[in-house]
User: What shape does this take?
Amino acid sequence: MNYLKRNFGSYRAAVLHVKEQLWLWAGRYSALENIDWTRINRLVFVCTGNVCRSPYAEVRARALGFSSISLGLDTTGNVPANANAQRNAVPRSIDLSRHRSQLFDPGVVQPGDLVLVFEPKQFRLMRKRMPAPKGQVTLLGLWAEPKLAYIPDPYNAGDAYFQRCFELIDACVAKIATRAGAARVAG
Assistant: This one.
């Protein structure tokens, strides 16, 4: 059980991870890897509550020199970052103390945006709210090594999973920043 909590946050998240990885290996999400890196002006991170994963990713992207925002699909708005997220971000040189959640609004997404979600379920919910996306949309975990379809929410997880989750986000955001930065230079 410690392995599951450390790597997925919970047993339920581990089961969802396996299910989504099978779909990933079957090719269900391959179209989400077709990104036109030359069109990216801003990174938009979207998760459920906008209090753990997406605010962390937003601040990490800014630290790497990218314009970014974060939004939540299920939030009342103006909620501070989760206390455990704030505490676990500090050793990674990320300050979430000023963050306040924002509800996802399709009008916020611009043509030069790359919208990044953490779970296939979030992708489906977002597409219902934004059937004709102005920006490109992908799963953040597709830029991990190895690729992941699902990065579980650390909200009720322990510090070990918060650190694992933030480690995954760091690696994915760095890879995206490298690709988008290289496309900017080449373009």
Q: What stands out?
A: The chain is about 40% helix and 10% strand. The radius of gyration is 15 Å. The CA atoms of residues 126 and 135 lie 12 Å apart.
